[in-house]
Amino acid sequence: MGDTAPRRRRPERLITQNSGLRRYGIFTFSLPAWAGRLPDGRTYNTCPAAGVCAAVCYARVGRYAFASVKAKHERNLMRILDDLPQWEQDVLSELAAPKYRGKFLRVHDAGDYFSDDYLSAWLRIARQVPDVTFYSYTKEVSRFRRLVQPDSPLNFLYVFSYGGKEDHLLDPDTDRVADVFPDEQAITTAGWHSNAASDLLAVLGPAPVGMRQNNIPHLKRVIGQRTFREWQASERARRSRGSDGVRR
Prior knowledge:
About 35% of the residues lie in helices and about 15% in strands. The protein contains 9 helices and 9 strands. It comes from Umezawaea endophytica.
């Protein structure tokens, strides 16, 4: 018998489903949240526009902190950093499967669009797979202003979420925005629209969009009764004052 070539190992699947979104038929792609160090020693920050949200990030606790989950998200990031064009082709290959037709893919239930090249890759993917709807929460306001808003694919939906360094660039009268509130009653009192019935309401329902705090006791104690918008605004004001209390 002649020699047989070794089988090429199939790349690890990039697109998955988490327990919270599976019930809605939503697929996900995730990165490690915020900042850290990869196993090979490289440091990263997948949420460069994160503000106060970084102190209470739900995607750094609970199941996201499980070793297997964190390692999976880190491998996703390493594939992007090591070979972005190959990663892009791998995503397209996965999305060619019939099960994704007419479905929704939430890009990042952890992480954000950390570079121009990375965001541009997702825009190219969306244009090549028009029968999948991609959606995201993002704090990368200026990056989206430059790269997305001038010519956004119709199947690439997004909502700007408060709690980031670029909150001051947002206008809730013209931008689609989301904020985190203490509870559902606070959302109603503010006249905002809850996404409690489905995560898709963040991009498909009426706006502005309210989300209740995650029910994680130690994070709730840090946030208190503030919305992320209020918290970030107070932090920005604090940082803009000198030690003598005079605004610079």
